Amino acid sequence: MDMSLDFLQPGQIVSLEYGDRNLYAEVIQFVVSRQLCWVRPLLMVTFIEESPLITDLRDASDLLWPANLFRPALDTEVITFLSQLLAKEPKTEPDSVAKQQLNQFIHQLWQAYQEGLEIGH
């Protein structure tokens, strides 16, 4: 993504996209010197035929990720997902399935990113 990283401000909602999934996260800090973004995952949306599947990731670990892979999330795209998420009852214990889905997504995205780097060199 060849866009300005000026959007990476604390509190900003950003998106990482891979395949049929979007990870939405809140920016905690932009590490300018390393071009990394520290984010707190909020939710992952899996786009399936019927309706999007929303996975609550608010209990998941923070991520430190290359800033150039993020894009700013539009309010109109994320507000519906967030409202559905916030309408649900809070979980009493961490959701290990959600964390496993996040880990799988991050692993696949990182692998694709690395392969893309290899192709470009």
Question: Any overview of this molecule?
Answer:
It is built from two helices and six strands. With 121 residues, the chain is of the alpha+beta class. Strands 1, 2, 3, 4, 5 and 6 form a six-stranded antiparallel β-sheet that branches. β3 and β4 form a beta hairpin. The chain starts with 12 loop residues before the first strand and ends with a helix.
List the helices and strands and how they pair.
Blueprint: E1 13-18, E2 21-31, E3 36-46, E4 53-56, E5 63-66, E6 71-72, H1 75-87, H2 96-120
The structure class reads: alpha+beta
Low-confidence stretches: none
Mean pLDDT: 86
DSSP strand tally: 6
Gap from first CA to last CA: 17 Å
Give the proportion of residues in helices.
25-40%
Rg: 15 Å
Q: Please report which band the strand proportion falls in: under 5%, 5-15%, 15-25%, 25-35%, 35-45% or over 45%.
A: 25-35%
In DSSP terms (H or I, runs of 4 or more residues), the helix count works out at 2
The biggest beta sheet reads: 6 strands, antiparallel
Overall, the morphology is globular
Report the order of strands and helices. Answer: EEEEEEHH
In short:
This protein is an alpha+beta fold and 121 residues long.
Keywords:
121 residues; globular; 31% helix; alpha+beta; 6 strands
